[in-house]
Amino acid sequence: MFWWREQVSDGLWIAFTDNAAGNLALHVGDSPAAVQSRRSSMETELGVAPGSLRFMNQVHSANVGVASTAQPAPPPETEIDALVSPQADVPLAVMVADCLPVVFAGSTAGGGQASAVAHAGRRGLLDGVLVNTVSALRAVGASDIRAWVGPSICGRCYEVPEKMRTASCEQLPRLYSETSWGTPALDLPAGAEAQLETLGVETRRLGGCTLEDSRLFSYRRNPQTGRFAGLVWREQ
Ligand SMILES: [Zn+2]
Ligand SMILES: [Zn+2]
């Protein structure tokens, strides 16, 4: 069910699902009823209220949304790639299969917590989705922000055209990489870590390569694949 799971601060949990949890995305041609049933099972597993786990309509943008229990869920057509819960009271999910899932936790005044998730592929990373997520967390009063960089395609597997590597590394040099077979590549986890360090965010890279680890979905391994998820929720 989980590739990794840990309580990261008082009552706040972060996890990354594996493919035993099944496909959690509605946009990949899977049966919507089957996806909803897996999402419900996941909510039961996390111990959160039915229907409370918030998913995003991800489009490789740098847009950040805010989720609060006081506000209704945004309409499903709202396109965002990061979501902040100012009081960490809304369970959040980010779906991936090779892109980078990043999950955030922070402290707020009076001993409170804030949380966030972000979907960072090459485009989102370069357009600042992580930078915007950290800004949004700070805007709601979060400090001591920490980030968990989950499993994605690794720098030794993520082959890209030479021109794309050159252009990407002009913006973010730490993306530079080479595949294990000697062709141009990008290292998304290294690029994310570099950006987060610059922002003063304590970052933990969990490692794991979606292309190499068959417990994880990988679009590059199979374009018909499902999506696994990065999750953050508060114990209820
Ligand atoms: Zn993606
Ligand atoms: Zn790899």
How are the SSEs ordered, and which strands pair?
Layout: E1 2-9, E2 12-17, H1 32-46, E3 64-66, E4 82-85, E5 92-96, E6 100-108, E7 112-120, H2 122-127, H3 129-139, E8 143-149, H4 162-171, E9 176-178, E10 184-186, H5 188-198, E11 202-205, E12 228-234
Parallel strand pairs: 3-4, 8-11
Antiparallel strand pairs: 1-2, 2-12, 4-7, 5-12, 6-7, 6-8, 9-10
Bound molecules: zinc ion (2 copies).
General description of the model:
The chain has helices at 32-46, 122-127, 129-139, 162-171, 188-198, and strands spanning 2-9, 12-17, 64-66, 82-85, 92-96, 100-108, 112-120, 143-149, 176-178, 184-186, 202-205, 228-234. It has one domain (2-152, 203-234): CNF1/YfiH-like putative cysteine hydrolases (4-Layer Sandwich). It has a six-stranded mixed β-sheet. Strands 1-2-12-5 form a four-stranded antiparallel β-sheet, with no helix packed on it. The radius of gyration is 17 Å and the shape is globular. By secondary structure, the chain is α+β, with helices and mostly antiparallel strands. The structure holds zinc ion (2 copies). One zinc ion is lined by residues 96, 99, 119, 121.
Can you describe this structure in just a few lines?
This protein is of the alpha+beta class and 236 residues long. It contains five helices and twelve strands.
